[in-house]
Design a protein that fits this description.
- The protein is about 50% helix and about 20% strand.
- It is α+β, with helices and mostly antiparallel strands.
- The protein folds into two domains: about 120 residues, GMP Synthetase, Chain A, domain 3; about 60 residues, Ribosomal Protein S8, Chain: A, domain 1 (2-Layer Sandwich), CATH 3.30.1370.
- The strands form two sheets. Strands 1-2-3 form a three-stranded mixed β-sheet. It has a three-stranded antiparallel β-sheet with strand order 4-6-5.
- A hairpin with a 6-residue loop joins strand 5 and strand 6.
Length: about 200
């Protein structure tokens, strides 16, 4: 007997409205307060964020028929919470070009923001898929920076998701030879590597 799932579409504007209307501090406010030493994310707060994100992820995974999975949590290089799912036959969670994984991350992030009252970066990964993609994107970014600097012209990269663009920007932020900018609209938005 199959369970029926009631799906209610959630628009991104709803999440933004809930985030800005909240009395809880925003991610920027928490980061700024932590930088000023006024307030920082305590271990208890981080545990609450992780527990909320893991519970949301487990609730969603019930509908994927993926069997037993393990969810490992750890902190990323940029302070984000990374939840890495491991198990057998998890390709369905990644989807074509990572689209299902992107949607899964969006849902878990939206639920987490709404539950805890402020934005904290949560990354969902499946058996290191995003880690491997990150390495590829960083390599593309470095190669593009080398081309832009040696050819003295801007290099346009393929359209990317916000997460992918962020990786490129971070990878090249300390490179004195180039700067990066995002251009375009919607799904055609891409990074341009500009020589200095």
């Amino acid at each position: 007997m199959e369970e029926e799932l009631e799906v209610t579409p959630v628009e991104e504007t709803e999440v933004v409205e809930a985030d800005t209307a909240s009395d809880a501090p925003s991610e920027a406010a928490v980061s700024a307060a932590a930088a000023d030493g006024e307030q920082e994310i305590t271990d208890e707060m981080l545990d609450n964020i992780a527990d909320t994100a893991i519970a949301a992820l487990q609730d969603i995974l019930k509908y994927f028929n993926v069997g037993e999975v393990t969810i490992d949590e750890y902190e990323g290089d940029e302070g984000e919470l990374i939840l890495d799912i491991t198990g057998d036959d998890l390709a369905v969670l990644i989807g074509r070009h990572g689209k299902t994984l992107d949607a899964l991350q969006f849902l878990v992030s939206a639920i987490t923001v709404r539950t805890i009252g402020f934005r904290y970066p949560v990354v969902i990964d499946v058996e290191g898929y995003k880690s491997r993609q990150r390495q590829k994107l960083e390599s593309i970014a470095r190669t593009s920076a080398n081309r832009a600097a040696s050819q003295h012209r801007s290099i346009k990269l393929r359209p990317m998701t916000p997460y992918e663009r962020r990786i490129v920007h971070i990878a090249l932020r300390d490179d004195d030879r180039v700067e990066t900018a995002s251009e375009g609209e919607g799904s055609a938005r891409h990074v341009v590597v500009i020589p200095l």
